[in-house]
Amino acid sequence: MEFNSSSPNTIRVVSTFASPFEGSPDQNDSSNSSSSRKPLSLWPGMYHSPVTNALWETRSKIFERLLDPPLDAPPQSELLKKTPAESRTSILYNFSTDYILREQYRDPWNEVRIGKLLEDLDALAGTISVKTGKAAPVNRLCPETEAEKLLYEAAEARNNIRKRKRGEDKREIENGGVNRLEELLAEGRIFCDMPALADRDTILLRDTRLENSLICQPQQRNIHGRIFGGFLMLRAFELAFSTAYAFAGLMPSFLEVDHVNFLRPVDVGDFLRFKSCVLYTEHENTDQPLINVEVVAHVTRPEQRSSEVSNRFYFTFTVRPEAKANNSQFRIRKVVPATEEEARRVLERMDADHLQSINYTCK
Asked: What residue spans carry the region label Disordered (predicted)?
């Protein structure tokens, strides 16, 4: 059957996105040199939120200014001192008047999708870093106001603690950390060896796991042609949310995202696997029990029989008070590891969270 595009029964489909070259000379014009256009593979993906797209457009303009500086600009090899105010950037979400924007960020409970905000925050961080300076060399940041100085000192303290902790982890295991490992593993061994006698308010870490997989598509790339880090954060958050939901049995409420590790880039076409679990729970505050969820992203290459960790994400959730009030039987189980490797991961996160809480208290 011959296809007739002019038939009244033919439904025409058009792109809802503007071309990156909107307003440029006609692309079909032979006088328009192809060398003046980016290759299609370097276009930013078309999956992203309007906020992310706006931030990337701003970043591209900054790059253009850096590549073509004014004649009186200092040489790029000369480091400058910049204040936090010079890179301060705000995002305004007009949810009250822009109904299309509101629909793009709405979750099933008519609240804002946190994963979409994390996606935008990743793009915002990249834009701010470009405002501060190119990848090398980096301009020195000089806080001026008291608030800026406090934030700067707090960030420096967190970085120093993180660096020191890397060296201390191994020594701690050698000098008494073994006892903590054994305490964590004791209940897990009962589950493995005598499951009928295990504490019914306890669950093995491995029994809280969820997983999903995807092939990274061109629509998910950033302006550099790699998979956008904000997209990875979105997918990790939504898996973590589902993990907390399945674990608690009630609607979870997001509290915080901890330090995110970007260990290696993710490329278009990569086979990406997200694996999540509840690492541990905290019951000190009965009104707000905490569920700490880990999500690890793996780039898997079946042809090479290899799998590498690309990202680690850590999220903390609780349960909404109104949901607890409607369920008198509700309880949060204690999560226990079954292997030494799981126990080490749990201890590492407990210590990191403890150090972070101490740091916030000091502020």
From this structure: 19-39
Pairwise CA distance, residues 324 & 334, whole Å: 17
Residue/partner pairs of 76-80 with CB below 8 Å, 24 or more apart = 76/134, 77/137, 79/137, 79/138, 79/139, 79/140, 80/133, 80/139, 80/140
DSSP letter, residue 281: E
β-strands 140-141, 81-82 pairing: parallel
Chosen domain end from 117, 132, 147 = 132
Q: Which amino acid is present at 44?
A: P
* In a domain? residue 124: yes
Quote the domain boundaries for residue 314: 177-362
Q: What is the CATH number of the domain that holds 343?
A: 3.10.129.10
Residue with tokens 């629509």: 219
Q: Note the pLDDT tens digit of each residue in 90-100.
A: 888 888 998 88
* Helix, strand counts (H, E) of the chain: 9, 10
User: Which residues neighbour 134 within 8 Å (Cβ) at sequence distance 6 or greater?
Assistant: 66, 76
Residue 59 belongs to some domain of the structure: yes
- The encoded tokens of residue 271 equal 């086979």
Burial class (CB in 10 A: 0-12, 13-18, 19+), 145: exposed
Q: Residue 121 is which amino acid?
A: L
Specify whether 118 is located in the same domain as 188. Answer: no
247-271 pLDDT, tens per residue? 999 889 999 998 788 999 999 999 9
Whether residues 191 and 328 share a domain: the answer is: yes
Tally the domains of the chain: 2
SS3 141: strand
The answer to the question of residue 223 being in a domain is yes
Could you tell me which of 322, 223, 220 has the C-alpha nearest to residue 272? 220
Lowest mean pLDDT among 94-98, 147-151, 205-209, 217-221: 147-151
94/208 same-domain check? no
- 30 within some domain: no
Beta strands 271-282 and 210-215, pairing class = antiparallel
Closest Cα partner for 349 from 312, 308, 299?
312
